[in-house]
Amino acid sequence: MKVLNHPDRQDIQLSSVLYALSDPIRLYLVDVIHKTGERRCGDIAVPVVKSTLSHHIRTLRESGVVHVRVQGTQRFCTIRTGDLDARFPGLLASILEAYQNSGEAEQLLATT
Amino acid sequence: MKVLNHPDRQDIQLSSVLYALSDPIRLYLVDVIHKTGERRCGDIAVPVVKSTLSHHIRTLRESGVVHVRVQGTQRFCTIRTGDLDARFPGLLASILEAYQNSGEAEQLLATT
Asked: How far is CA A88 from CA A76, A92, B8, B40, in A?
């Protein structure tokens, strides 16, 4: 089984987390997965091709924002809320609140 | 006098702000300027050459994080806290608090 690298909690860097969240597609993915809980990574409807989606998920995983669980040929994503809240208390909630109020999700879906 | 473009408050995008803050040097600049108030842009001691510093300031300005005032041959930076707080209440404070607790500033200065 392929083992995916995830940074340990203490190695999660603020600048990497902010970079991971600095893309409209990735912000949308994190918002959706945060709301719904574990999701099959490929199941989230976003206006990008599959390889681009995989790249975004990888960026989120490598920064420590998302945990990817491999099950057979499928991959399931969760947000590492426990680790993020321990490293940067209140940060994720603050960013997601800003996102939900920003209208950027609606803008993104309007381009679909 | 050269006029620098700054996005209007309502045009400040969350993803652009997060991108501007996703670099260790830019996070450090914002933290310093936020603490001290208006600063001559070139006066902040960071381990990069002048042209790189100018590029970082430009990224911060174009995203709406920093306002740059031109006075003769000098440029002065302030953080657009009023605009950022209006657009994304609590976001900047949350990111700067995470930054101050992260030890990333000390890591950056240790490389100087």
From this structure: 24, 8, 29, 30
